[in-house]
Every structure is written in C-alpha cells, then in structure tokens.
Amino acid sequence: MNLLQLFIDRAADHLDQPCLTVPASSAVPAEQITFGQLFDRSAQLSGALVAGGAAVGDRVVAQVDKFPDAFALYLACLRAGLVYVPLNTAYTPSEVAFFLTDAGAHTLVCRPGTEDSLADAAAAVAVVHTLGAAHSGSLPRRAAEVDPFVGVTDRSDDDLACMLYTSGTTGRSKGAMLTHRNLAANGQALHQVWAFEPADVLLHILPIFHVHGLFVALHCALLNASEVIFLPGFDVPTVRRELLRSTVMMGVPTHYTRLLDDPAFGAADCANVRLFTSGSAPMTEQVFNQFTERTGHRICERYGMTETGILTSNPYDGERVAGTVGYPLPGVELKVLTEDGTPAAVGENGMVWVRGEHVGPGYWQLPEKTAEERSDDGFFRTGDVGCLDSTGRLTLAGRAGDMIISGGYNVYPKEIELVLDETPGVVESAVVGLPHPDFGEGVVAFVATDHDDTALTAALEAACSEHLARFKHPKHYFFVDALPRNAMGKVQKAQLRAEHAGHFGPS
Ligand code: MCA
After folding, report:
1. Measured in angstroms, how far is the CA atom of residue 338 from the centroid of ligand 1?
2. Which residue owns the Cα nearest ligand 1 atom 45?
3. Banded pLDDT at 245 (limits 50, 70, 90)
4. Is any ligand 1 atom within 6 A of the Cβ of residue 438?
5. Count of domains in the chain?
6. Measuring CA to CA, which residue among 428, 403, 421, 402 is closest to residue 480?
7. Under 8 Å between Cβ of 71 and 62
8. pLDDT tens-digit profile of 325-356?
9. 408 CB under 6 A from ligand 1?
10. Residue ranges making up the domain that contains 448
11. With a 6 A CB cut-off, is 280 part of the ligand 1 pocket?
12. Distance of alpha carbon 186 from the chain centroid
C-alpha cells in the first residue's frame, strides 16, 4: 500500500483541522495549513513533477529549507510513486553532485538562489526546480500551470518510497533504501508505543532531511492527525514559547543541553508536555538527570538508524533508565552476538543485530555492501555494540567503527581524512571526535606535516569548504610530526581521543 494512502485515511475526519503551524519568526513567514490543504498541496506539486517527466520509481532529490511546501513535496513524491531523496541543506555543491549521479536522479528540487552554484551538479538530472518559502520558486509556479495529480499511485509494500544517504566508513556515501512497508511499520509502532492521544500537539524542531525529523516525528503526527508546530530551526526562546501549548517534543541531546543552558527554563515551560523523546546521539546521564530535576520529566531515549528506522525505545509507561535505549519496538527482532556469532550473555557487550518490517532492503546499487551487513537469515548488522539486561533492555556501549556523532549528525572520519590528505603539505591525517559540551562530540583533525601551521590551516579550511558540509569541518587542527601507530601500523585513534579528551572543556 502507498504510505500516503495510510496518512490520508487516518486524517479523513480531520481535513479541516490544523496540520502544520509555522509561528511568526524572522526565518520564514507565519503560516498554517490544514490536513486537507496539505494533501491538496501535495497533489499540486505532484502534478508539476509529473509534468516534468518524472515517472514511477524515478528519484527526486531535494535540498530545500523547512516550511510546509517542503513537507508537501515529500508527500507529492509518495503520491506519484516517485522515490524521495532529501539532502542536508549544509551539503556543498560537490557533495550534491555525488548524490545526484549516484541516485541517477531525474529531478532536483533546490533552494531559490542556489541553481547557479548547483549548475554543474545538476547536469546529471533531466529537470531542475526551485522551491522556497511562501510558495516561491519554479516548482510552485509550474504547479499553478498544470493539473494537480489527484490520485495516489498504487505501490506495493516492497516498493521504494525514499532513499537517504548515510556517509560511509570508506568515505563514500551509501543510499539507504526504505520501502513503503518499512516507513508504515515504523510509524505505526512509534505511534503505538508513545501512546499518541487525540489532543496531542507536536513541537517540531528537527530538520526534515533526516529520518528523525521527517519520519519519526512527522509520521507520528500524521498517523494521529495531530497539529504540528513546525519551527524552521532551533532557538531557545521560540521553543520555550511554543512548548507552552505542545504535548510532545522530539529532539537530539544538543537540544536538551541548550534548553538546560537557559537558567530560566524549568517545569513551568513544560506544564502541558506529556512526552520528551531523545535520539540520534547518546544522551549523558548528567543531562537526563538535570532535565528531570529541572522539569520533572524523564526524557524517553530511543535508538535507531537511517537504514532501519527506530529500533528500541524506553517505555512510555515503565521506567525510563538513563543511559539505556529501552526495548525493541513491536515488530523488531533484536539480538546481541559476540564476535564468534553466539548470543552474548546478559550484561555482556556484543554486536547488535536486527530484523523486521522496519529494516530497509539495503543500499542503493551496492548489493555486495548490502550482503556484507546481513546474515543469511536476514538480520542486519547495525555496527553498534551493546548489551541486554535480564529484562531485554538494551544499553549501547559504542560503535564498532570510528564514526563520530556531532549534534545528532553522523560524521565519518574517512570522508574528511580523504579531503585533508589531498591538501599539499599534509603527510597524513586522522580525524576523531572529542567530548564537546554542545554537540556531544566535536570533530578535530590530527595532521602530520612539516609545514607552517597557519598557512596550512587556511588551506585545510578552504579544502573543507569546497568539499564538505560545514558540520563535518574539524573544529580544531592539531599539527603533529607523525601520527601514533601500534605495532600493526594502525593509527591509534583511541590514544588521540584519550590524550585530548578535555580539549573542548568539560562535556
Ligand atoms: C550546526 N553546526 C554543527 C552542527 N550543527 N557543527 C557540528 N555538528 C552539528 N550537528 C555548526 C554550523 O556549521 C555552524 O558553524 C554553527 O554550528 C551554527 O550553525 P546553525 O545552523 O546555527 O546550527 P544550529 O541551528 O545551532 O544547529 C545545531 C542543531 C542541529 C540544532 C543541534 O545540528 C540539528 O538540528 N541537529 C539535529 C540533527 C538530526 O536531526 N539528526 C537526525 C539524524 P559555523 O558557525 O562554523 O559556520 S537521523 C538519525 O540519526 C537516526 C535515524 C535517529 O536515530 O534519529
């Protein structure tokens, strides 16, 4: 079944009710649209995409800001059976070029004003449209000229709905494929375990180009026909103001840290809230406990991945334990295996494997990589290490690889090292994450060189600006004569992390 049909069915009795409310702010105009208007808008944008020649199964890549039309664009793709591929707005033209080519995209939808900088990248696609706030851009203009696409294209559960790129351990990003079934199953499971209620109002503070903001948050709201307060970004005064009439907020740990940094933030701000959830990065027990002390709320930490959606959650009606990510969602089979493939004992760390309807079919056009991370009986190797307690509650201990999570964004050191190593004067580099009070982990680079530090810093920053989204840029460079290596010749990243753990101050 097409996922959009599920949303339309759930909202059938609520078409006149507010769906997305954008409060007045400096970033985007105030706006409110109902469920009926959202679905109509998706039909109009769908009409424009199809008029441009996009056909069922074609990939539509979007790099757009956050406003109601941007969400309608996602639904427009579902409607016409197109595969929606959202991109982080921080990605540079060279990163976008890779995604367009790799996805074999038919259409690019970008921000008004970015067409020129994306012109080279866009040579790979048949159609380029722009989409901006307040219905600006060529896509809305085209939509006004053509007939809306009012039907909902038949899709089987196993057809692709979306593809989201995750950076790779090899430095090459992979398109994680997600089907209509994967998204429907995950949305319904979360809607159930987080006990959505008719009067819920969701405060939406996340970007809508990742699983967390686009699927976890918005699918729950759509399945519940709930109003969403749709903030273009995160700033503490606006969030405090809008929390007053919200019942649910989903965030990453950085959001909670920033709220706690405001000494005036407290229980009165949260009087109407029934649920705070956190994910995308580990939350420290300190932040969890401080939040409880200040507000009386125990944040519900949960765990997921782009490839799988959300896998586990602390209970809604049971004990939410700091530092744990709770129990598998309905429909998720989860096991922890030791290195020799046998089940880990209670409390023993091992690799987390998962299976179920939420788990996507693999990586776009990478059958070998897909097979590498899957067992013969269909379990997906998450790459996360953790242990189960005697009740089946999961605690994560870390990742098998050296991925960094900065403010909820995954950053793969290899991708950055490849850029740094290309810079003249660099012998080699090692990128690691160090504890950071705001972002959880902050990206830093150790650069082996005999060149002048100042000139080299400028060259490295220039190289990063050209090739990498800003959140991936090292926030500090350490220049060294040589990188520490073990007897096998492997760079000792753990040693670098330990020696410089206090660099960004207490975390
Ligand atoms: C912004 N900057 C960052 C980050 N975000 N640097 C490192 N890590 C970051 N996450 C930098 C910018 O480049 C800029 O640098 C400066 O900080 C200020 O930028 P601004 O846009 O104002 O940042 P912000 O609005 O303060 O953003 C912080 C944020 C944002 C709100 C925490 O990063 C965010 O929305 N994170 C959520 C990510 C998320 O949704 N992840 C879900 C992935 P400069 O000043 O040098 O120019 S989905 C997932 O992981 C799975 C499935 C799951 O389980 O959820």
Report:
1. 34
2. 470
3. very high
4. no
5. 3
6. 428
7. no
8. 999 999 999 999 999 999 999 999 999 999 99
9. yes
10. 404-499
11. yes
12. 15
